């Protein structure tokens, strides 16, 4: 019964979640939330498109939010959070410069990623 149930569940989970679920308890629990991809420092030319990546793994649903300089980022026309969690800036401007972090949370808690610095270079 258990293995049938696991297979049923695993069809509906991502591979990573499935591995987490099917591992013996204590090895890797569902409650653990961690980043599989964290944003890196980026230097963009003025007007260039920027994507900052962030992916977390843990018991779903996991929601991702972004912060710039410690303040939660509001999405606007040119700044969006993509469905895969990455932050998308369609045209970088000096105002976009700063220190970015993503915050992942699920019902067990929250984790904050490393800080990624975005620098926008070029003529204004
Ligand atoms: C998320 O999607 C965007 C746009 O398709 C892509 O550029 C980015 O690399 C993706 N992020 C990850 C972590 O795969």
Automatic annotation (TrEMBL):
PANTHER family hit by this protein: BASIGIN RELATED, FASCICLIN-2
Protein name, per record: Protogenin homolog b (Gallus gallus)
Residue stretches making up the Ig-like domain: 25-121
Keyword Repeat: yes
GO MF annotations in UniProt: cell-cell adhesion mediator activity
Record family assignment: Belongs to the immunoglobulin superfamily. DCC family.
PROSITE patterns documented for this protein: IG_LIKE (PS50835)
Cleaved signal peptide residues: 1-29
Cellular-component GO terms for this entry: axon; plasma membrane
InterPro entries referenced in this protein's UniProt entry, alphabetically: Ig-like_dom, Ig-like_dom_sf, Ig-like_fold, Ig_I-set, Ig_sub, Ig_sub2
């Amino acid at each position: 019964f258990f293995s049938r149930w696991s297979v049923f569940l695993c069809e509906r989970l991502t591979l990573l979640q499935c591995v987490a679920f099917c591992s013996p308890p204590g090895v890797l629990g569902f409650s653990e939330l961690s980043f599989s991809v964290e944003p890196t420092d980026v230097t963009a030319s003025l007007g260039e498109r920027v994507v900052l990546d962030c992916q977390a793994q843990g018991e779903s649903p996991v929601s991702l939010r972004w912060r710039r300089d410690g303040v939660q980022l509001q999405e606007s026309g040119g700044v969006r959070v993509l469905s895969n969690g990455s932050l998308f800036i369609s045209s970088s401007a000096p105002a976009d410069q700063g220190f970015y972090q993503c915050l992942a949370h699920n019902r067990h808690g929250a984790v904050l990623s490393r800080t990624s610095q975005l620098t926008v270079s070029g003529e204004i």
